Amino acid sequence: xxxxxxxxxxxxxxxxxxxxxxxxxxxxxxxxxxxxxxxxxxxxxxxxxxxxxxxxxxxxxxxxxxxxxxxxxxxxxxxxxxxxxxxxxxxxxxxxxxxxxxxxxxxxxxxxxxxxxxxxxxxxxxxxxxxxxxxxxxxxxxxxxxxxxxxxxxxxxxxxxxxxxxxxxxxxxxxxxxxxxxxxxxxxxxxxxxxxxxxxxxxxxxxxxxxxxxxxxxxxxxxxxxxxxxxxxxxxxxxxxxxxxxxxxxxxxxxxxxxxxxxxxxxxxxxxxxxxxxxxxxxxxxxxxxxxxxxxxxxxxxxxxxxxxxxxxxxxxxxxxxxxxxxxxxxxxxxxxxxxxxxxxxxxxxxxxxxxxxxxxxxxxxxxxxxxxxxxxxxxxxxxxxxxxxxxxxxxxxxxxxxxxxxxxxxxxxxxxxxxxxxxxxxxxxxxxxxxxxxxxxxxxxxxxxxxxxxxxxxxxxxxxxxxxxxxxxxxxxxxxxxxxxxxxxx
Length: 491
Prior knowledge:
alpha+beta, Fic-like fold, 3 domains, two-stranded antiparallel ribbon
């Protein structure tokens, strides 16, 4: 009966069912919300089995963003099997060669237990192509990895691969984890006395460890902070490759701020409705002007949307004021702007006051999207990293604006309204550095969010950069045309 009513979503070749309260409008969103429980059910059927490779490294680091393909070793069978979980997502089962698997249980959001190959056994599964594809998380993991010698010995005996161990030893040494480098080197030599050079292992030639991480002081940071450092450095290079050399518009900051203020209602409508609120442009205009609300019945959803617009209007004004003073973006500035966004909702009783001025203290998911924001314990460290980047004097202004926005929504430090605040922070950086305000229209929501997801999950921020660079150039053209037109009239 549940199947006939559409209240069951069957996935993983009908090996798993997802119960839903109503017929889902977006099946993919339902699947992504339940990705790891589905994977756990699929793996249990083939136990003993465990997630391996780069997928396992990311899980050890606490990254639960669903991959398109998850690799699994199965110990009880010699067969190779690909199980389609849902269109575009597959679990690849491969034989392990024995029945004993050294497994850790890692708790995913929602409490599901995932069988993941232990660190000692996992090391020998990382071949060169996988390291090249996942250099940032693997380097961050190795830099801080401490492993029990008995665990490593058991893992190596189970899967003796000296070249891989020597490659990882070279990487650990380059990353400053000398104890791990010695440990892996000894393990490799016990298997094969032949010494493999870095040219053979590929470290320093085919496998280049980002300088951003090798420059970090030993003992400093954390794996997730190291990933952030490497991610931002890569994104800076991607911005430079796409944007190249450019000229700033010859328009005064006062004129830029006046133009932004004139576009406030338009921007507030698109930025608010982009996040799912339903409100008409006419009502947004009235709220921005400060006119009395039109008479008539108002349900809670309408009132919440109105409070969201009021909050956005207040935060918008604060951004213009900050841009006039060229105040650097700090964590205090971010918290002040977030409180401004929420103040009308707090006053109306829709939000508890203590929720409007603190980082989130619980896990969150993004409905319909693959990126899973970092757990709340990582947020203070990552927000410090974002502040340090925003205050660096050597950063190109366009790179700072785009990466501040992208990194902010990737960290997702608040429970709600991260997208709006991220776009406000980007526009603040643009205004403060002589560029006009840009608005991402609500009807462009899907391709824009897709470009963000690709940057977050596929480590490719080029679509995001191209998208916003196009908007910035268009805004520069429009602003310059208005400025020169006004100059002609004055003459």
